[in-house]
Write a structure and sequence with these properties.
binds adenosine-5'-diphosphate; alpha/beta; 9 helices; single chain; binds magnesium ion; Rossmann fold; 12 strands; 276 residues
Length: 276
C-alpha cells in the first residue's frame, strides 16, 4: 500500500500583512497505483501542494499522510517514511550535479537511500544497482560515464527519474516533468513514466497544464484555482462534463487542431486533429 493523502492542507508564505495563502484547505488522495492529475492555471498552488508532500515546505495547517501515517512535520521514522514519496521537477538539471557523471548521480541517490535505511551497499552491489536503474529508465549502461551536459533534456529527465527510483518510492510527484522538454521527446518520457508506474504499482500525482496528456495518462483529475481545490473526479467525468466554469476555461485552452498534441497510439507528440 502506498496511499498519499493531503488532509485539509494549507500552506502560507510570509507573515502579518504579507501573509499569502498559496494552498488553502486542500484535501486530496493519491490512491496506491493510481495516477491523479493536478491541473490549474499558473500560480494556483499546484507545485506548493506537491512540495508540501516531500517536505520542501511544511503545511501551516492540515497534514500529509502516507498509508495513514503523518509524514508532514515528522521526525525520525516518520520522516524516513517520507522518502517513499519522491518528486521530479520540470527542469532535470536542477537535481543533477553537473560535475558528477550520471552513474555517480544515481549511485549518490542509492547511497542516500541506504544511509536513511541504515544499511550499507558494497561497491559491486552499488554498480549493479546503478546499471539496473539506468536500464529501467531505458538509458544504456554505457551512458553512466557521461556528464549531464552530454545528455539531451529527455535523457536528463530519465536520470532524474532513475534517482527518484533509487529511493524505492511508492509515490511519485511529477511536476510539469515534460514542460521543459522538446516536444519530440515528451511522449517517450511520459510513456516511460507510465510503464514504470504500472510495473511498480506506483501512485503518481501528475502536475500538468497539458490536458490532452492528462486525459491520456490520469485516472483522476483535480483542479486547483487560487490555492483551492475546485473540482475533482474521474478524468473522463471532469474533462467531458466539467462542473466549474473555471475548468471549462482551462479546457478551452487545450491545443486545437493544427497544434502539437499528444498521440497515445504512437506515444509521440504530433500534429493531429481532435484535440479535445
Ligand atoms: N517560497 C515562496 N514564497 C512566497 N510565495 C511563494 C513561494 N512559493 C510559491 N509562492 C507563491 O504561491 C503561489 C502558488 O505558486 P505555485 O505553487 O508555484 O503555483 P503553480 O505551481 O500552480 O504554478 C504563487 O503565487 C507563488 O508566487
Ligand atoms: Mg508549478
Amino acid at each position: 500500500m502506498n496511499h498519499l493523502e493531503f488532509r485539509n492542507v494549507s500552506v502560507a508564505f510570509g507573515h502579518g500583512p504579507r501573509r499569502f495563502v498559496a494552498v488553502d484547505d486542500v484535501s486530496l488522495s493519491v490512491p496506491a497505483g493510481k495516477i491523479v492529475g493536478l491541473v490549474g492555471e499558473s500560480g494556483s498552488g499546484k507545485s506548493t501542494l506537491a512540495r508540501a508532500a516531500v517536505g520542501l515546505c511544511e503545511p501551516s495547517a492540515g497534514s500529509v499522510l502516507l498509508d495513514g501515517v503523518q509524514v508532514s512535520h515528522a521526525r525520525g521514522a516518520n520522516a524516513r517514511l517520507r522518502q517513499r514519496i519522491q518528486m521530479i521537477f520540470q527542469d532535470p538539471s536542477s537535481c543533477l550535479n553537473p560535475k558528477l557523471t550520471i552513474g555517480q548521480s544515481v549511485a549518490e541517490a542509492l547511497d542516500a537511500a541506504a544511509k536513511r535505511a541504515g544499511t550499507r551497499t558494497g561497491r559491486a552491489q552499488r554498480a549493479a544497482e546503478t546499471a539496473r536503474l539506468l536500464e529501467s529508465v531505458q538509458l544504456p549502461a554505457a551512458r553512466a560515464a557521461d556528464l549531464p551536459a552530454a545528455l539531451s533534456g529527455g535523457q536528463r529527465q530519465r536520470v532524474a527519474l532513475a534517482r527518484a527510483l533509487a529511493a524505492a518510492p511508492g509515490v511519485i510527484l511529477a511536476d510539469e516533468i515534460t514542460s521543459a522538454l522538446d516536444v519530440s521527446v515528451q511522449g517517450s518520457v511520459l510513456n516511460l513514466l507510465r510503464h514504470i508506474q504500472r510495473e511498480l504499482g506506483l501512485g503518481i500525482l501528475f502536475v500538468s497544464h497539458n490536458l490532452a496528456v492528462v486525459r491520456y495518462l490520469c485516472d483522476e483529475v483535480a483542479v486547483m484555482q487560487s490555492g483551492r481545490l475546485v473540482e475533482h473526479g474521474e478524468t473522463m467525468t471532469v474533462l467531458d462534463h466539467p462542473r466549474q466554469d473555471y475548468t471549462k476555461t482551462l479546457l478551452q485552452a487545450v491545443p486545437r487542431i493544427g497544434e502539437p498534441l499528444f498521440a497515445p497510439a504512437t506515444g509521440m507528440i504530433q500534429i493531429s486533429e481532435g484535440a479535445r
